[in-house]
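Forwarding these from the shared drive since the link keeps breaking.
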Amino acid sequence: MKMHNTFKTELIKKHLSLPARVTKITTPHGEFQTPTFMPVATRAFVNTLTPADLIHTGSQIILGGNTYHMLCTPGMALLQDMGGMHRFMNWNKPMLTDSGGFQIFSLSKNGKICKIDDKGGHFKHPNTGQLIHLTPETSIQAQKIIGADIIMAFDECTPEAGGREAALLALERTHRWLHESVAIHEKNPHSAYGFKQALFGIIQGGSFLDLREKSTQFILNTNLDGIAIGGEIIGFDMQKTMELIDWIRPMLPENKARYTMGVGLNPQDLIDVVAKGIDIFDCVGPTRNARHGTLYCGKIVKKNDWLAFVEDEYCSRILIKKAKFARDENPIMEDCQCFTCKNFTRGYLHYLFKQQAMIYFNLACIHNIFVMQWVCEEMRKIILTI
């Protein structure tokens, strides 16, 4: 595929009766079509999966390397010496990274580990104890060394427990840090390796309609390449997530990519947010579930000109450790074309899990990621053909 050192989002087609849509996104490391799910390579690898495995599951883009974790190890100097994240992990397709904002939000729940102020997050290296300052400037600079095609403005994730006061404080910091992130990025909108990087802003505002609308307008007034929707509640409470999308979708332009951060714990979650007009999403849930013995199981069915992930006789997941699967000669999921389902039975996977065999984790993660990408493929098909 010919590489283009540019970033562009093109609307291909909208669903006839839903906000769901297909877009084509062009990056310096290739094109991909949405809706699509991004497996998460937090520490420069997707747990138990090789790049070849990811490609065979239908993955077009990954979330590669979290800024906080990359700052801690292997460190930016080594990563830059290795030529950036694409070369380091041998992933030659599109990549998005995140700013580290969610990690400092999580760490700051223990004030002895991390403190947040108006300048950013300040935390100690978990191994060396060195004090690290994660600010809009250091976050953007680190993301340029990571070299992802899509980078995120530094933000403060909005906590749900703090009420309106906490939501407003996080909103104000996020907007201030957005302007600082843009100023740093515009000095050189390329990675450390010369590739054009797209900068996305993140809509915050918690569960408050007026704050979400205010944040959306602020993001739109800033010339960004795409729009993310963040906050602790996104992906955690799917009913509220969809309500928030409905609040702001009328404001969103059609020529900008839309990204819900942390959505994708279940296949149905993808179907729900795409029906609301979202393009891309990520979640550690599918691989984490797989490693702990929870495997997606159901059918993708057409329902009212859209799709649903319908539970099988057990539920939308099976717990492979249960004794009832010990002699089960069926694949994990009927009609699934993943490598695991085409070659192995539930009974064998039950045995591997009980043995805690390394191969189990690989086979289980292949299946769960394949199911998420299969759901995305079917959504693209129905939008394009209906």
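-- next protein --
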Amino acid sequence: MRIELKKFGEILISRPAGREAYLAMSAYLTKDLSEDETIEIDFSGVKVLTPSWADEVITPLAQRFKNVKLLNTENATVQATLKTLREYSDLKI
């Protein structure tokens, strides 16, 4: 399953918006998937990503699914946010 984050906007910045995005994903995209399903999180088209938004979306996806892959992470804000999550939210991907 590929999740294109640009569908949630180009500027992903607030914790409430991240929570809403995760709830939408849980209800419509990942609802019936097993924990062994490969989840590809695609950052293409995302201009700004903050740790608060990402912590509400990426962290729970990484906790729920065993095989999460991150695609198109070249953007500087995406890289900085992922680094922050790995340091402070114990993100393992």
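The longest strand covers residues 38-42. The chain has a mean pLDDT of 96.

- D.
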